[in-house]
Amino acid sequence: MRRTLLPAVPVLLIALAGCGSQSASTSADRPHPAPTTTSPPLREQDRSLPCGGSVERPVVVSGPEEPLRLGVTSLRRQGTTLRTGYRITAGAPEQMLSLPIGEVPPTARILRHGVVVGRERPVAHKDPDGRGARGYPVGRRPYRGTLAIDSLCPGTTWADLDQHPGDYQVVVVMSVQPQGAPSAGRPANGVDPLPLLEATRDLAENR
Hints:
Number of strands: 11
Low-confidence stretches: 4-37, 181-185
Radius of gyration: 28 Å
Distance between the termini: 93 Å
Strand content: 25-35%
Number of helices: 2
Largest sheet: 6 strands, mixed
Strand order of the largest sheet: 1-11-10-5-6-9
Oligomer: single chain
């Protein structure tokens, strides 16, 4: 009894056709999703940094390459207040700082994973002596100040900070200051807000 063998060519063609359909849908041929951002445009940002908010980008992290440098120098707990010392210095001896600092003066917040959970009670920042804009020789001597964080956001307690200090960070921000003559921190182009200069310190460093 003789057996009849079926030709293998059609099977091979089917297999090749399957490979072709698979290569047509590779990731290189699929459209890429459009890039996204979590920060709104600068002029739409809430610069008051409310509870549940974040320090939205763009932010300039203070470093040695900046004309003005902002640093968190100390954290001192006094009951239900966290006193936060900061310092502003400059790389060039002729550098001046315009006082009062605007448009966002030095402002302290407590962050947990980037979200505001503690803040200063809102206050009106005023010219301390009413003399208007003036220059401070920050290139020759540091400008120092202290901010009091005395209001925790709902869901956060001082006990939380005591028990898990590694989860928390103190941030001090201020507007990047325009160069030149004292200007009371007015935006350089008169329209867009100034970017923020940021300095941070882990709460655990205070232990």
